[in-house]
Amino acid sequence: MPRLLEIMRRLRDPQSGCPWDIEQTFQTIAPYTIEEAYEVADAIARNDWSELEGELGDLLLQTVYHTQIGAESGHFTFDSVANAISDKMVARHPHVFGDESRDKSADQQTADWEKIKAAERAKKAQAGTLDGVALNLPALLRAVKLQKRAARVGFDWPSTDEVLDKLQEETRELVEARDNKSKTDMLDEFGDLLFVMANLARHMDIDPEEALRSTNAKFTARFEAVERKLSDMGKRPEDSDLKEMDALWDAVKAEARICPD
């Protein structure tokens, strides 16, 4: 760790460092931080542990980068960041580092965790129920987090039945906006529909990001299978038409049901 911190310090040295690294700011580095986090998740999804090692290093570099900029501007240092997260983890696990009992159910542990986080938000003067939900989260993830916060104070439908009713309502409103050819209304109603879908996922204990990633992977595999079938026929997708490709798609789905592996 000291070696990596020294490398970053030298890269940012105004006199002898790398011109590109010297020019970077919190704002310019932030997109790379997000990208590296996704690449870590991708390596995990592919069970590529060698790749994961490298990606974790890339993600660690992002923390080092931000803390070096923070140190230069007098905001914080790597040590202060490490100490802050250490203090937070100890405070949030009194059943491990304190005198509370470890004999708790998963639900009780989750409830206790939320109480501790609520107390932390109160100390930060985050009085509103939705305060502290990061603005730059992926929109679908942020929708789920906003809904979870609202549910804590009782603003929630009691079951999936009401959510499904709302889903039908929002679908009808989107159709009306489409028929009226109002781009603004379509954007608004489409957002409402996605928001309700995120709520449905929460009620069904489904991670919407995971569900969509799975469907993306399934679509990719099936479409590539359609392309292979077309190639066997001496064709490319642009040489085919929707009717033919749809028939091949159905064939690929049927084959998958017969041989799911």
TrEMBL record:
Enzyme class: hydrolase
Keyword line: Hydrolase
Reactions it catalyzes: ATP + H2O = AMP + diphosphate + H(+)
Domain NTP pyrophosphohydrolase MazG-like: 24-97, 163-224
EC number: 3.6.1.8
Keyword Isomerase: no
One term of GO molecular function: ATP diphosphatase activity
CDD domains assigned to the protein according to its UniProt record, in alphabetical order: NTP-PPase_MazG_Cterm, NTP-PPase_MazG_Nterm
Gene Ontology biological process terms from the UniProt entry: dATP catabolic process; dGTP catabolic process; dTTP catabolic process; dUTP catabolic process; response to stress; TTP catabolic process; UTP catabolic process
Keyword Zinc among UniProt keywords: no
Similarity comment: family membership: Belongs to the nucleoside triphosphate pyrophosphohydrolase family.
Protein name: Nucleoside triphosphate pyrophosphohydrolase
Organism: Litoreibacter roseus
Upper lineage: Bacteria, Pseudomonadati, Pseudomonadota, Alphaproteobacteria, Rhodobacterales
